[in-house]
């Protein structure tokens, strides 16, 4: 079974668009969705669940921000090596710098168009297929 991907996203529309882009990019890895930071942390803290191969983490989440979740991940010995791609609609350099400083593997700007989103999904597929 291919390794999984954890998508942490509170917007139903963005989840739907991401799922469509993954399908178009032929990203067949199982996708787990957490709707907020608290849910993501609970999933990752469950030692009975296999760890995802990659986390795609929205920066702007309710309850716990994406940066809060990222900092928590980097404090957990079991999770420290997980690749965490923070993504946001924000193009502000300071948001990218804060994400990198908190331990993000990479900061991605949410693509505006479907084709760009499919390309991003294809890039994630390449990373997962290694």
Task: Describe this protein's structure.
- With 130 residues, this protein is an alpha/beta fold.
- It contains five helices and five strands, in the order E-H-E-H-E-H-E-H-E-H.
- Helix 3 links the parallel strand 3 and strand 4.
- Helix 1 packs across helix 5 and helix 2 packs parallel to helix 3.
- The chain is globular, with a radius of gyration of 14 Å.
- The two termini are 15 Å apart.
- The mean pLDDT is 92.
Query: Overall mean pLDDT score?
Result: 92
Shape: globular
Q: Please provide the count of β strands.
A: 5
Structural class: alpha/beta
In a few lines, what is going on in this structure?
The protein has 130 residues and is an alpha/beta fold. It is built from five helices and five strands; from the N terminus they run E-H-E-H-E-H-E-H-E-H.
Give the secondary structure arrangement, pairings included.
Blueprint: E1 5-8, H1 12-24, E2 31-34, H2 37-45, E3 54-58, H3 66-75, E4 84-88, H4 93-101, E5 106-109, H5 114-129
Parallel strand pairs: 1-2, 1-3, 3-4, 4-5
Helix pairs in contact: 1-5, 2-3
Q: What distinguishing features does this structure have?
A:
5 helices, single chain, alpha/beta, 44% helix, 130 residues, 5-stranded parallel beta sheet
